[in-house]
């Protein structure tokens, strides 16, 4: 019986159900046969986090910003004698860097806030464990993931060069190039008016005062 109280054709629902089954049976399956067939993941997929230990300065930003508090860092200070310097310098040495992937929610904040590019996403996702405690990856294990980090995407050819590239190009061109680049800039008058700050050729034509 339908919702409005009318009695439908007997067996209509059964026929409709069989029609859906028949249609699905004749369609091509879209199921991926994992693990027999590896999934084709986008290169920037969030699988696991890799650590480039040499870049880590133990600034603790990642551990402080992690919303799950699942990054554990220990370090100690070491004196470095610099020849010619009045005093020995100090540097942080990383003793422990663990991420607990049983707590991690893959938000990527730690990677975003790291100022030294020490943390990277890798699309590697096959690290499930029988024991949940084994999901605590230490710095050696996090370091091993670095070999699975894909190369960064190429720069936009139409984009501006980075500050570092521009400086390197200027240095390679020699000391005269920087001066030439400065003098080649259009002269800009700094006044309060936004129009007056544009180069002369870009300003709108000034109107003659009426006589
Ligand atoms: S991805 Fe998010 S939750 Fe996981 S370790 Fe980084 S900041 Fe913490
Ligand atoms: S933010 Fe980067 S440099 Fe700072 S402790 Fe974390 S991984 Fe190391």
TrEMBL record:
GO cellular component, one term: plasma membrane
Annotated [4Fe-4S] cluster 2 binding sites: 66, 104, 107, 110
Residue ranges with Low complexity bias: 173-186
Domain spans labelled 4Fe-4S ferredoxin-type: 47-76, 95-124
Protein name: NADH-quinone oxidoreductase subunit I
Entry EC no(s): 7.1.1.-
Function: NDH-1 shuttles electrons from NADH, via FMN and iron-sulfur (Fe-S) centers, to quinones in the respiratory chain. The immediate electron acceptor for the enzyme in this species is believed to be ubiquinone. Couples the redox reaction to proton translocation (for every two electrons transferred, four hydrogen ions are translocated across the cytoplasmic membrane), and thus conserves the redox energy in a proton gradient.
Biased composition (Basic and acidic residues): 157-172, 200-211
Lineage: Bacteria, Bacillati, Actinomycetota, Actinomycetes, Micromonosporales
Enzymatic reactions: a quinone + NADH + 5 H(+)(in) = a quinol + NAD(+) + 4 H(+)(out)
Chain residues that bind [4Fe-4S] cluster 1: 56, 59, 62, 114
Lipid bilayer topology: Peripheral membrane protein
Region spans: Disordered: 146-211
Record-level Gene Ontology MF annotations: 4 iron, 4 sulfur cluster binding; iron ion binding; NADH dehydrogenase (quinone) (non-electrogenic) activity; quinone binding
């Amino acid at each position: 019986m339908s919702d409005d109280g009318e009695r439908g054709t007997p067996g209509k629902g059964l026929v409709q159900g069989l029609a859906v089954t028949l249609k699905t049976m004749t369609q091509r399956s879209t199921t991926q046969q994992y693990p027999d067939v590896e999934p084709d993941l986008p290169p920037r997929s969030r699988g696991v986090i890799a650590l480039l230990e040499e870049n880590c300065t133990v600034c603790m930003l990642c551990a402080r910003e992690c919303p799950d508090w699942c990054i554990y860092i220990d370090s100690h200070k070491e004196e470095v004698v610099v020849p010619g310097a009045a005093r020995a310098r100090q540097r942080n040495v990383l003793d422990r860097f663990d991420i607990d992937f049983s707590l991690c929610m893959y938000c990527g904040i730690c990677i975003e806030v790291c100022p030294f590019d020490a943390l990277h996403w890798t699309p590697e996702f096959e690290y499930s464990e029988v024991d949940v405690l084994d999901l605590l990856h230490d710095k050696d294990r996090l370091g091993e993931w670095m070999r699975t980090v894909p190369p960064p995407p190429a720069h936009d050819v139409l984009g501006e060069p980075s500050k570092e590239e521009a400086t390197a190009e200027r240095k390679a061109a020699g000391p005269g190039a920087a001066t030439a680049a400065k003098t080649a800039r259009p002269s800009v008058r700094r006044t309060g008016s936004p129009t007056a700050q544009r180069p002369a050729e870009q300003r709108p034509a000034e109107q003659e005062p009426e006589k």
